[in-house]
Amino acid sequence: MIKNSTGMAAVVTAAVAVAGLVPQQAMAESHYKGTSAQADIERRLQMMEDEMRALRSELARARSESRENVEKMEAQQEKVDRQLAEADKGEKEHRDLLFFRGGYAKMEHGRGYKGLETLVWNADENDNDGWYVGAGFDHELTDDFWGLTDIASLDGEVMFEYKNFGTGENFLVDAFTGGEVIENKITQFTLTAAPKIKFNNMGNFRPWIIPFGLGIHVISPPSSGVTVLNPGLMLGAGAEYKIWGDLWAGLDFRYHFTGDDLDIKSKNGVLKGVDTDGLTAGAYLGFGF
Questions:
Q1: Which segments cross the bilayer (predicted)?
Q2: SS3 string of the chain?
């Protein structure tokens, strides 16, 4: 009886021990499974976070590139707008000028001062003052001197003027009529063509110079050699101011160096030639077109 009780106790103890081990093993297996699932979730979360970070980086780069493209497009648009504005301004601003001149004229020596001319006798050597009127136009060739500078432009000028130096006695008529006094008007017509450099960096005030120019002069009465045409060189300087719109007012000074085509080679020295060197100084009014 005692033996049976002892055996029963051993069986019960073993059963209890087995029953205790089974839950522990199950708990261990459950803990392992839970840990593995958590690690998997954390790994997936890390992957998602990496992907989100990569997406943010890609989005930031795309935004930066988009911003740069927008800035480039805006800069290009501003350039186009500026060019259009300049072109529109150039179309609205008339760069050519039609002008009308007038003022004081002076010959270096009066007609007949050297002595007897066939058609003019003038006892006063200093009688060489006169007046002039004329007109011309400037045509702009380049507004930046062909890319050399923005402060100066180059125009081409064509101009004509009529000069009046008073009167002189017609010696030829006097000699053949026995004292009949005939007075001739002493006049000169000049046609010139020249480059004109204008300085455009002073707003509405625009100085200019003519470094050289060709002048053709026609005198009346003719010289003792019965010639009337004399070429020469012209120099000039002046300034103009925009009064309103395309209306300009200016002052100018010009000097003419001429050749000796009107001089003659008199063998006995009685008849003398004509000196057409001289200057003009006056004002002009110009209209842009």
A1: none
A2: CHHHHHHHHHHHHHHHHHHHHHHHHHHHHHHHHHHHHHHHHHHHHHHHHHHHHHHHHHHHHHHHHHHHHHHHHHHHHHHHHHHHHHHHHHHHCCCCEEEEEEEEEEECCCCCCCCECCCCECCCCCCCEEEEEEEEEEEEEECCCCCCCCCEEEEEEEEEEEEEEEEEECHHHHHHHCCCCCEEEEEEEEEEEEEEEEECCCCCEEEEEECCCEEEEEEECCCCCCCCEEEEEEEEEEEEEEEECCEEEEEEEEEEEECCCCCCCCCCCCECCCCCCEEEEEEEEEEEC
Kindly report, residue by residue over 221-254, the tens digit of the pLDDT. Answer: 887 777 788 899 999 999 999 999 899 999 999 9
Dihedral pair phi/psi, residue 178, rounded to 5°:
75, 40
b/e 126-149 (16+ beta carbons within 10 angstroms → b): ebbebbbebbbbbeeeebeeeeee
Cα dihedral 138, 142, 143, 146 sign: negative
φ, ψ for residue 16, nearest 5 deg: -65, -40
**Rounded to whole angstroms, how far apart are CA atoms 246 and 240?**
12
User: 130-134, 159-163, 260-264: lowest mean pLDDT where?
Assistant: 260-264
Name the amino acid, one letter, at 97: L
User: What phi and psi, each to the nearest 5 degrees, are found at residue 69?
Assistant: -65, -40
The tens digit of pLDDT for each residue in 63-82 reads 888 788 888 888 888 888 88
Q: 12-33: b or e for each residue (b if 16 or more CB lie within 10 Å)?
A: eeeeeeeeeeeeeeeeeeeeee
